[in-house]
Write a structure and sequence with these properties.
Length: 280
Amino acid sequence: MTGHSEGGPVGAAEAKRAADAVRERLGVKSPVAAIVLGSGLGTLADKVTDATRVPYSEIPGFHAPSVVGHKGELIRGMLGGREVLMLAGRFHMYEGHSAQVAALPIRVVHALGARTLFVSNAAGGVRRTFKPGDLMIIADHLNLMFRNPLIGPAQKGEVRFPDMSAPWTPRLQTLLEDSAREVGVTLQRGVYAGLLGPTYETPAEVRMLERMGADAVGMSTVPEVIVAAALKMQVAGITCITNHAAGITAAPLDHSEVVEVGARAGVAFCAVVEAFVRRL
């Protein structure tokens, strides 16, 4: 089933329609969290046991992802002994989707009962000490997409003017750090800058981001977290640093590198997230 076009109404009613369409098929009971998988980080989906899966193409309002590294499935199952919902792939605005469409899956998992959101993504390292394969707790973000998924009529059950002073829940950041220590993984901490894409940044833009306080730069995530804040969800996230941002080194940038490094970092990423879910 095709989703809404750019500019079409996408909000709480559409989320409920999608949730109603998949609830019985997924067998959702009491999910402890919803997890969004970014580029190259889809191996976590293989860790889910007792899994039921619905392709995005069969969910009202959803789209089949066009980006390599995004399977396009909504999964319900067990991870770390806890029930989770997993979004294996996301919708990007550079694919032509509105911010409202990009954030629709978050409204859907909330309608399915998830009150904690864990997001992941692949990003370029702006901080010069970062190395490809590093994992970074997202402590804050910069919305440089200049789009907001809350624009439009107020949605039932959502805060009209959500407080964004701490959209990334401090308690969950501490829980991530504890989980990483448990499994012997080192996590960095920093600020994620979300840009529209699909072009990578110029060296001058990366220098600008560095001066603005960004530690990593990507093309997703921010619309999802804004809607989560409006829904009063608890939010945590990890960025996989897949490459140095433009100008940090002389190496050219390529999406295949993003997927490859994400896959290599997958073992550490999966261990941290599974330990995190157990602690929720």
